[in-house]
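Batch job 17 of 40 flagged for manual review because the log was empty.
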Amino acid sequence: MNCTAHHPNTFLQLLWDYVRLQHTSTVSSPAFPALLAFCGYLVFCIPFTLADLVGEGLPFLYKHKIQKGRPNVWMMGRCLWQAIFNHLVYVLPAVAINWLWSPPNPLPSRAPTLAQLLTGVVSCLLVFDFQYYCWHRLHHSSRWLYKKVHAIHHEHVAPFSWATQYLGGWELLTVGFWSNTTPLLFQCHPLTTWTFMLLSVWMSVEDHVGYDLPWSLHKVIPWGLYGGAPVHDMHHQKPNTNFAPFFTHLDRVFGTASTLHRNQKGAVSFQEQIEPWID
């Protein structure tokens, strides 16, 4: 049977037909979204791991390092183990409970249009950005919440790729909850949901790599709407600034924006609107 006989032969429809007909059991598994996000994290970190290990041996990359110096293998391994531990102890039980509470629905036969996919992904990113901004600012405003929940992520003042998921279990569960439920608000197609999840993982890794690369998203997206590594690197140095994970509009509106500047010799200076209180 021609699996696209009744549907437009668009790339998205052909891709979706292949996924749903050839890999139904895999993508229907309740563990698939968590596995997809975790595998994306591993794959996205690998190139920057090589760059960090070689360091000055790759001068065309190292010259873009925001904070000089680089992580060692022990630091990387510690972050990776924390991510594995969190998934085994927190994520897998949460997946099992969610599956018992709400078994997966049958996969739709139609793929989203390109406009639906792009609109859904952007909408999810903007809502997630707002959710995490509120959560993040709250956990920096309360000493108790900061020390008990969020402080582990700030053990590294100079972030690197593997530190993206160097989190406490509560923070990872919160982020995972939003990643899985925000697409439900917009009734997103599974393909749109997975695209949003992978893109948000990539953006999170890119935020933490510690390199201000000329081809990064913040150099592509105009008008400084996207912060990228320089803005989030500033957050790790000045923790009471730049709370939004991706975009810059919320920090600008609420007066928590802080920007990084380099002089002609490459030295870093800071311009911030508020003074952090957390040690």
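Reviewer: the log was empty due to a logging misconfiguration, but the result itself is present. The radius of gyration is 20 Å. Unflagging and moving on to job 18.
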